[in-house]
Amino acid sequence: MCAKASMDEFEALLKESFEIDTPEEGSVVKGKVIAIEAGQAIIDVGYKMEGRVDLKEFANPGEAPSINVGDEVEVYLDRVENARGEAVISRDKARREEAWDRLEKAYANETRVEGAIFGRVKGGFTVDLGGAVAFLPGSQVDVRPVRDAGPLMGIKQPFQILKMDRRRGNIVVSRRAILEESRAEQRAEVIANLSEGQTVEGVVKNITEYGAFVDLGGVDGLLHVTDMAWRRVNHPSEILSIGETVKVQVIKINKETHRISLGMKQLQSDPWDAVERAYPIGSVHKGRVTNITDYGAFVELEAGVEGLVHVSEMSWTKKNVHPGKIVSTSQEVDVMVLEIDSAKRRVSLGLKQTQRNPWEVFAETHPVGTAIEGEVKNITEFGLFIGLENDIDGMVHLSDLSWDQRGEDAIQNYRKGDVVKAAVTEVDIEKERISLSIKALGDDTFTEAVDGVKRGSVITVAVTAIEEGGIEVDYNGMKSFIRRSDLARDRQDQRPERFQVGDKVDARVTNVDSKTRRLGLSIKAREIAEEKEAVEQYGSSDSGASLGDILGAALKGADRG
């Protein structure tokens, strides 16, 4: 009975011993290094079980193995016994299990973890997080693209876990998040020590089309191109270079976005303070063309002071041409100050005002009546435009082309490019107009022909043509036309066919029109006038005498006279 009790106790104790000392496969167990040989560590994991682990499993990336006899280590028990009667253990798997437990806590608490980049894979890098391998995307390495990641390999540094899945064994980390966080802290600290209006030194970090980024010691400020100098700066590289140390003034700080605006010109005196004194209205100065637009050209009078020469103030004669046809960039020109608006920082300049008005010069050198010679530049429905000196034009109106022809007919005799002579008849400086006359240089045959002829005069003309509506006649080389109704007092005699070419007839002048260069003639008016005169001289038809008697008497009187 006693013996049986002792056996039961022994079995219970043996069973308890197995349960306590025999580790479970697939778990992490503690062991002791009892020997190091052939690149392996022999580890006693208890219950008379030993296993072997390659020394490299005890090394961190880029480091030598750190293990000695007598060290206690944790290993992962794959199997209790292999074919050689040894336990199958792994330090890597133990570290991985330990690491996952630790990383899951860090992920849940959003805390940083330490690791080392040890390999390159497609799209990024592999990171050892103390036993667990994570993926570091290329975009998460740094705040800016990294061309060479060599200096970052094998160095222990903090990372932020972005995503992890233990079941799939996936971990994604970011180095960039750490840098941005520390950078933000650094920026906040630097910005807290800055104030608007403060003068600081910085290093030019980057140059763009619109300005330059200046490092103020952990925080960048934007130095806009318009704040670099009082003068016009076409590109920041004209006055700055990367790596250069510059003195700048803090213009504005946005505490929310941490954006800082900087200025260099604010540390220099503003040339506009003395513009009105240095450039009185009406004064002429030399300047340099800095920019040309469709509406004019900008001229720099001094560094920081520019004025606009509007296209309308560029030339007396070139009205509809692009400013680039008159001036070129960097050209030195003389300009006159026309207007100054200091509040708007604007100066209006004139280019043409530095030269004499060509219409004034022409009026002085070509008084009315002066003969000129020029080329026909243009032909319009109302006259000819003649090119004169200093790029100005004069116009010959249709009515000033010929004494003898209608303007519409006379203009057909001219072609573009013809060189003609004309007389100056008027110069209007204000309206910039010069009137010319070609006919003024020729003889006025009409005036000569009708010299002494007045309305009411009776003249003798020669018939030159018979027409249905009347007859054409000639007087001293001037053609006139007597209408059918003016051929006779009596209707039955108003027949053109009763006349013949070459006949000489007397006609009364009813009109002298020098504008149309025509004489108004009427035989009928002459007959009526003669009848009236005869009645007044020889009696009245009311006294009983017939008109024939009176006219007969008048004719006899005339014969006697």
UniProtKB/TrEMBL annotation:
Keyword Glycoprotein included in the entry's annotation: no
Claim: rRNA-binding is one of the keywords in the record: no
InterPro entries, A to Z: NA-bd_OB-fold, Ribos_protein_bS1-like, Ribosomal_bS1, Ribosomal_protein_S1-like, S1_domain
One GO BP annotation of this record: translation
One Pfam match: S1
Classification via SUPFAM superfamilies: Nucleic acid-binding proteins
Keywords: Repeat, Ribonucleoprotein, Ribosomal protein, RNA-binding
Transmembrane segments: none
Domain of life of the organism encoding this protein: Bacteria
PROSITE patterns: S1
Single GO cellular component term: cytosolic small ribosomal subunit
CDD domains: S1_RPS1_repeat_ec1_hs1, S1_RPS1_repeat_ec2_hs2, S1_RPS1_repeat_ec3
Domain S1 motif: 26-92, 110-176, 197-265, 282-352, 369-439, 456-524
GO molecular function, a single term: structural constituent of ribosome
NCBIfam families (UniProt xref): PRK06299.1-2, PRK06299.1-5, rpsA
Function: Binds mRNA; thus facilitating recognition of the initiation point. It is needed to translate mRNA with a short Shine-Dalgarno (SD) purine-rich sequence.
Family under the similarity heading: Belongs to the bacterial ribosomal protein bS1 family.
Name under which the protein is recorded: 30S ribosomal protein S1
Provenance organism: Gemmobacter caeni
Organism placement in taxonomy: Bacteria, Pseudomonadati, Pseudomonadota, Alphaproteobacteria, Rhodobacterales
